[in-house]
Amino acid sequence: AVVLAAYLVKREALELREELGSGQFGCVRLALLRSKSHCSRYVAAKALRENAAPTEESEFLREACTIASLDHEHVVRLIGVCISDGPPLVLMELAFFGDLLGYLRARRHLAEGADCAGRESFASYEEAAHVSSEALTRLAREAAAALAYLSSRGVVHRDVRAANCLVDARRSLKLADFGMARETVAGADGAPEYACRRRGMFPVLWMAPESLAHGVFSGATDVWALGVLVLELVTLGARPYGSMSPLRVLEYVAAGGCPPLPLDATPQTCGLARLCWQREAERRPSAAEVHAYLAARPLALSAALRN
Ligand code: ATP
């Protein structure tokens, strides 16, 4: 709450516009924030839904506190909070292209059309649709940079995936959704807390074997998820593990499996995925090492886009 004191915004300064999306806490709306000292600006206003429990309200504001404590070009910024005269609102920088998963899938529809027209047009499409090797690699490096920063701050995100990243007007990635994030204090992590927050919903498809088996989260489990995010990038938002049910994925990963890669994935993509998905957490690269890996070995779009 002390952290948020510097961010308080009066409700009258806000003009709420259309809905941008919705999540477990409630909906996110476009809003115009009027300010005396600065020009007015558009922001994303996240509202807590009406019937939220008090524990959900504190979780909601806790996420705002976490974002307020972070300062990185690839981590979404907190603009303000409204806590008087009504349900709380958290104001965040607006990401013009919305979440990364929606962004990738919108491009996938275009790619499928271009693919039907033949490989030649598919190649030119990659440039036009901003899914060239450079564009995909840049997004992956930005996610890695955000995670390297979190790691330097002793924060574990615990829910890294394309749906939890945003894309701004410059097509730059912003890591968001810090509802699950925790400081790496011994004993602070725990599956029951996680289960409670998600009402039993685990992001199983992005979880490392040790998270699935023992509820352990660390920088290394964020790197496993980063590997799955890379898979989402090169397949333009395909569901990891295809149509396998979460329960089946749990068994499959427990038995030593990891997400299947597209048959045409490049050696660079396969190499990075294998590093991120090593069974032993200590053997996985750090986020900073993934960032460096990508500088030398760019990703490429998989043409096998269908699940
Ligand atoms: P949760 O895991 O909390 O359910 P979520 O990502 O599904 O998370 P929200 O964070 O509430 O839900 O966001 C819902 C949707 O609103 C996002 O998927 C995205 O499309 C859109 N959105 C959220 N924040 C922004 C933002 N800062 N700029 C633009 N769009 C946003």
UniProtKB/TrEMBL annotation:
The gene is LOC113493032. This is Uncharacterized protein LOC113493032. Residues 14-294 form the Protein kinase domain. It is found in: Membrane. It comes from Trichoplusia ni. It comes from the Eukaryota. ATP binds at K46.
